[in-house]
Amino acid sequence: MPSLSEAFRAHPVYLHHKHSDFNSLQQKLPDSYAWTQPDSHAYADANSDNKTVPVIDLKDPNAANLIGHACRRWGVFQVVNHGVPLTLFTDIQRACLALFSLPLHQKLKAARSPDGVSGYGRAPISSFFPKLMWSECFTILDSPHHLFLQLWPQDHAKYSEIVKEYEAAMKELAAKLMCLVFASLGISKEDVKWAGPRGEFDGACAALHWNSYPSCPDPDRAMGLAAHTDSTLLTILQQNNVSGLQVLKEGEGWVAVPPLAGGLVVNIGDLLHILSNGLYPSVLHRVRVNRSWQRFSVAYLYGPPTNVEVSPNEKLVGPGRPCLYRSVSWKEYLGIKAKHFNKALSAVRISSAINGLFDVKEVQNDFHVG
């Protein structure tokens, strides 16, 4: 079975921009980073109850139904009482701060190769946009030992252990969330062969993205991370106490997802959108930046074994609900995503009929380059 590293390497996304030292760009926003202000109607007032991303207590006996409701209406929710030790949040944020605080020349010792995935660099989606994003990221696939050795010759073991513990906790939580999502769809783990006999999802693959969004001299014209959907089943995001994440709510515009102490953001990815036959939308999301504060986040990108075919579950297909998508493996879909970006779901769609199903609105972003 090909690893996730091999799957990503089979479909490289080449980035041709040099890395920036954001410390030297604090006086004025360079034109290469300047995105014009979006129309005012693109913003939503996130203070009203009906425009707040749902928060779900995983100890609630009704958690599966609550998750189902959130997935249908939003494609994203936050979870509390999730079982992940809060000390791990502190540890992983401390590791992020340590990494992104290094001088640029030191970070570049662990730079992502031109056709690679792991290591330091720009957001992989950067190649789809003419303007640069005010962010930097560090991607971990498999063991981070070699990369951390370049960054911290003396302390690499300490940070490697933090990643190991964090990934183990995220893997366990992701399996729990998948079981709840399946239950909300009326699917049992027996209906999905790769789930395993006890719903342990042992063959699942994952990547870890560390993100940094430095303080910005002109945040209204900058973009931390442009609008996109994830190729995953689920993405589990931990963010520090600086706001910036926004999701596109159908009919309402961009809604903020504020940091929640001890909480985690969970968003639906393209593969779960396919598996649910369009019932659960893959949510468009983006990140805005801040004038005064640096934002950090850690994203756990979770998917099936790379060569397993994902298709609409047969229980979600019937006379009044046609099969909307063909089967596709994560490895193949990564290639489709690398070519078509936010129109990738259309590329695997086999039916134009919606029949009341919500289908993801394929919009790259509502910023206009100027």
TrEMBL record:
PROSITE patterns given in the database record: FE2OG_OXY
Fe2OG dioxygenase domain residues are 203-304
Superkingdom: Eukaryota
Annotated TM spans: none
**UniProt entry tagged with the keyword Transcription:** no
> Which Gene3D superfamilies does its entry note?
B-lactam Antibiotic, Isopenicillin N Synthase, Chain
So which cofactors does this thing need?
A: L-ascorbate
> From the Swiss-Prot or TrEMBL record, what is one GO molecular function term?
gibberellin 3-beta-dioxygenase activity
Q: In which pathway does it act?
A: Plant hormone biosynthesis; gibberellin biosynthesis; Hormone biosynthesis
EC annotation? 1.14.11.15
For the protein in the UniProt heading, the enzyme class is oxidoreductase
Family, according to the entry, reads as follows: Belongs to the iron/ascorbate-dependent oxidoreductase family. GA3OX subfamily.
| Protein name per UniProt | gibberellin 3beta-dioxygenase
Q: Which organism is this entry from?
A: Vigna mungo (Black gram)
